[in-house]
Amino acid sequence: MSTVIARTVTRTVVPIILVTAVALLLQGHNLPGGGFIGGVLTVTAFALIYIIYGLNYLEEELLHQNREVLIESIQHGIVGNYQLAFGLGLAVAAVAGLVPLLFGGNFLLQDYWVLHHLPVYGELHVASALAFDLGVYFVVVGALLTILAVVGTE
Amino acid sequence: MQPTPDPAASAVLAVVFLPFVAAALVPLVYRALGERTAYYAAAVALACFGLVASQYGTHGTVSFPWIPSLGVSVSFYVDGLSLLVGFLASGVGVLILTYSGGYMHGEPGQPKYYAALLAFMGSMLGVAFAADLIALFVFWELTSLSSFILIGHYQRQKSSQYAARKSMLITVSGGLFMLVGFLLLHAVTGEFSIVYMLENPELVQEELRQAGLFLPVLGLIGVGAAAKSAQVPLHIWLPNAMEAPTPVSAFLHSATMVKAGVYLLGRFRPVLVSHEWELAFAILGLTTMTVAAILAVGATDIKELLAYSTASHLGLIVAGFGFVSDLGGETGAFHIINHATFKAALFLVAGIIAHEAGTRKIENLGGLSEDLPITAGITAVAALGMAGVPPFNGFYSKELLFEAAWEAAAHAGGLAWLYPAVAVFGSVFTFLYSIRFLMLFFGEKPTGLHKVHSPPKAMLAPPLLLGILAALVSLGGVLGTFGFHFEPFDHFVTEVWASTVAPDADLHGGFSYHVPTHLTPAAAMSAVTIVLGAAAYPFYGRLHRGVNRLTDVNLLRANWYYDSTVFGANDFSDTVAETVQNGLLRTYATWALATVAALTLAGYAASGVTLPEFALAEGMTLPIVLVLLIAIVGAVAVSIAPSHISGVLTLSILGFMVAVFYVLASAPDLALTQLVVETLTLVIFLLVLDRLPAFYGNAGRGKMIRDGALSAVVGATVFVTVLVSTAATPADGIAEEFVNRAVPEGGGGNIVNVILVDFRAFDTMGEISVVAMAALSVLTLVAMRERGETQ
Q1: pTM beyond cutoff 0.95
Q2: CA B122-B124-B128 angle, 5° bins
Q3: What is the pLDDT of residues B147-178, one digit of tens each?
Q4: Of A144, B427, B462, B612, which has the fewest CB atoms closer than 10 Å, so is most exposed?
Q5: Which ipTM value was assigned to this complex?
Q6: How many helices (H) and strands (E) are present in chain B, helices listed first?
Q7: Backbone phi, psi, residue B236, to 5°
């Protein structure tokens, strides 16, 4: 499946996709975007690498991973990382929900602050919901990559 | 009646929960005490008995707040009837558990046995004291569950499995009938409290009648009681339940569990008693009494004989409660006590015989009194009581039944004269088998029966105590003739009796009993019974064979119906499983989709949903129409695509068109999501398809048509659902609210995202958990399959 054109395009496009994904995640609160879309977009970038270069390349060359395999049938140890990702995501979302309790708020209460006079940005909205969104992002990335890797290996 | 003190809350709570706590501790105790766990369990039962006894003479409700904010509480009710059942469960429990110490010597599975027995006792105490319909139901089913474990004690034996399953099926499903009855009661009165119903019986009955639910409630509760108390034709589980170790039979099937059904009738008697009640339960009880007594004559095994006899005597109690007159309640109350004493004693005697003589076959036994003199004495008192021979205890309660039946017949006339006739007829058979059981100890020893050893003391003391109790009750009647009464005992029976009649009923100065001193109809009926019984006894062998010939006819056996139904259902479910789940994904999908579509459409049809009017033109611009048309073309292309690859590719046309539609309908967030997800699905699909054969299977024309029709139905269902569900949008949209609050409260301009992470963050939390779960399940499914777990 990998022609020279495909490889070259992938090399160029993947970073752009990833940056876009992160941008979508960060701007999600005010503009189209958010954790879910950002997550899915990130996964498409990975999928592209996977299709063009194969999972081994992703695992060994790009991420320098050589992990023990947990489940025999799944040939790639990287699946463990993916699992970690969605576990972490759930934890982040839960902690983000719990923090307001410390300040006497309800579970999952969100707040936001507006920072003025920043260099370059000028004015910036910082919403605590971003932490929660980050959790969503990681869950989506981890879960979809797990499915992708497992189904792909099949 | 003079006011009585309120029960002590802590004692009642302890009595119900102590057995459960003790049951949980049994494995630990067993490690320390070994076989002496029996005495630990007996001590627990004794403690319960003490606690019940400490509440003797009290009357009222004990309530503990449980979830106060919702007004939910745990409450228990103490009155004569609940005390009686409490005494039976704990008192007989003490004896049975002591007896088990001897009987279960060297048996396997003892921790399980004692834990289940204690749990059973706790459930039974719960049934007795529950003051709430739901609590009653829960404890009720707990007795079924624990008895399931006990009946199936020898879990490797096919016959035990069959017996346990049978009793479970019958008693648990009977309980479900009862639950429906309870829910109807609740629906009508708005109360779950039994105490409320007992305090306003007339009001409740009136309300039930007005709602037209009186007969259904009566019937449903009756089915529950009949299943538990082994009334015809649900009596069939009781003889099979004799697979259990004998102490269990004695405990569950003579003194406690089977009494739960009778208890239920007694409990609801004040509320439901009426003409219909009498018709239902007098007939049911008398039929059971007679049929089971006849079957007992046909029994070849001593425990089988006792099992049928139990069903028969329960029939007597049910019939007693069935008669509307005050005598009816008196009969039931008194016979519960008598039956528990003589029947538990006889079961324990049967256990001794089986244990020491090594056989339970009636024809192989005889002349046991030489070796077992004390046991013979106990049996004489108990069996003569069971036969209803004066002056033994069963006689007095049977007299009461005869009296009640006679009175009912004299009152109603006509066919009602069958009541006393059937009562006498059934009692003749009762007399016959009781004497047959007694004769095991007399006459000649059959060849092949060796010297029988005396049982250990732990096995002899409990039946002896029960026999003495039965003898004391009998003596009470003799003394009563001369004007001496056991005041406390009479008072207690009066209390029980009072629980089974309306609060303001006249008890004629309380209960007392004595040997009849002049000729009454009831005394004459007793005399006829005994004379007929004695005359028929020489022909016992012939009767025995006759009954067995009769029960060989399949259509006359309730068991045959049960077996046909249960095994038929098994075969049926095998067939269904093979048809519906034949291992082909296509079949699974067909059935699942067809079922969902059928249920949904049927739901709409049943609730009379009308399709809302919708205008195509509304909000339709030319670009949107174009995009949707392309989508339709894509959809058609999918269905005629020649290969998987082209099918998936054309499917994605559909997806992308939907995304474009979102853009045109100004929903950029949705469009973005749709685009990205569509791309990703496409990639995953292609990855998978790489490994699949590139052609479709050659399905037949019939299958194609079926699948086509199914997909059309599914499509129509989804279409209708969307129409119906969007039509329910409220006029003042919730969107406005979100728009107004998003920026000031969420601090974000993207309303969709603000809703997701601020307003409905908890939802999102659940959703991401589901996503994570899905990934885990994919992982597990694939891994499990590869491990070859196909056994």
Answers
A1: no
A2: 115
A3: 888 888 888 888 888 888 888 888 899 999 99
A4: B612
A5: 0.84
A6: 32, 2
A7: -65, -20
